[in-house]
From TrEMBL:
It comes from Oceanobacillus neutriphilus. Pfam families: ADH_N, ADH_zinc_N. This is Alcohol dehydrogenase. PANTHER family: DEHYDROGENASE, PUTATIVE (AFU_ORTHOLOGUE AFUA_2G13270)-RELATED, PTHR45033. Residues 10-331 form the Enoyl reductase (ER) domain. It comes from the Bacteria.
């Protein structure tokens, strides 16, 4: 099969298209012929050696959708020809509230979805939502799961609440907007680009502000009257702004820190306001099943940025690294 192989840590050019052996399923596993795959920021972190547990050579990629072509022993509820999407979270365990210590994500150290075929545990495949194209289905799993657990399972968003999503544009952020909007929340976003704010308003955001503008915090506070729930992947100085904007008894869910730790965090403000800070990452198998049901019920379509061929994965990753994308970047997988 054709696959994008990573043999050395480095730049996007380290990914090379190679002919490798097609996987065969062991007991409890299935092999999927992929129709499409999708990029995640995790792929860039792996490429640059910034992710724990990297073992090379390996095929990157966590997201994918396709058809079952081979089924291992002891599997009764999956057949060849089934159209599926992949839950990329491996070894979560039986406790839906917390993952096991050996939890990992598909795509380095295990071979991932930048390939024509991928082998995964049978418990990690779910029927593809019928209203989604292959590209949309491939774009759903990791970012959709992360957003659902952060917004719904951990954030417990409710109708009429004011929700803030800083830095709209990436895949997870677009799902956060869609999920909160579908549940009747008032969704506010920030970005350094007016174009991204306007796009977010097209699919559910109530309003947004440009954080490069002077007094943008005051503008946002005047717009909202205060925030009930912030869902953040930025941290850094931005996190202190989330605290200042939060209402008494509000929540902040953090699932990342692209701008690093929070400097000089003033805890008394958070204490006086009784703000809850909640950590979140990926999600449990139950979260994934609930997320897929939610997407089907509300007929949500992932926001796609641009589709590249499999061999163009380096260019696709470069686009994501520069922050040029709005929504998910997808790879179209060759079928022969």
């Amino acid at each position: 099969m054709k696959a994008m192989m990573l043999r050395e840590i480095g730049e996007t050019s380290q990914l090379k298209l190679e002919e490798v052996e097609t996987p065969k399923p062991d007991s409890g596993e299935v092999v999927i012929k992929l129709k499409a795959a999708a990029l995640n920021r995790r792929d860039l972190m792996v490429l640059h050696g910034q992710y724990p547990g990297i073992k090379l050579p390996a095929i990157p990629g966590s997201d994918g959708a396709g058809e079952i072509v081979a089924v291992g022993n002891e599997i009764n509820n999956i057949s060849t020809g089934d159209k599926v999407i992949i839950n990329p979270g491996l070894n979560w365990g039986n406790d839906m509230n917390k993952k096991r210590a050996d939890f990992t994500i598909l795509g380095v150290p295990s071979n991932g979805t930048y390939a024509q075929y991928v082998k995964v545990p049978a418990e990690n495949v779910y029927p593809k939502p019928s209203h989604l194209s292959w590209e949309e289905a491939a774009a759903l799993p990791l970012a959709g799961l992360t957003a659902y657990r952060a917004m719904v399972t951990k954030g417990k968003v409710t109708k009429g609440e004011n929700v803030l999503i800083p830095g709209v544009g990436g895949g997870v952020a677009t799902y956060l907007v869609q999920f909160a909007s579908a549940l009747g929340a008032n969704v506010y976003v920030t970005s350094s680009k007016e174009e991204k704010i306007n796009k977010a308003k097209d699919f559910g955001a109530t309003e947004g502000v440009n954080y490069t503008a002077e007094n943008w915090t005051e503008e946002l506070e005047n717009l909202t009257g205060g925030i009930d729930l912030s869902v953040d992947s930025i941290a850094g100085e931005m996190f202190k702004t989330l605290i200042s904007l939060g209402k008494i008894g509000s929540r902040i869910v953090s699932f990342g820190a692209t701008r690093g730790p929070v400097p000089n965090l003033i805890l008394p403000t958070m204490t006086v306001k009784e703000i809850s800070v909640i950590g979140s990452t990926m999600g449990s198998p139950q979260d994934f099943a609930d997320m897929v049901d939610f997407v089907e019920k509300h007929e949500i379509h992932p926001i796609l940025d641009k589709t590249y061929s499999l061999e163009e994965a380096p260019e696709a990753l470069a686009r994501m690294e520069k922050g040029e994308n709005f929504g998910k970047i997808v790879l179209s997988i060759p079928q022969d």
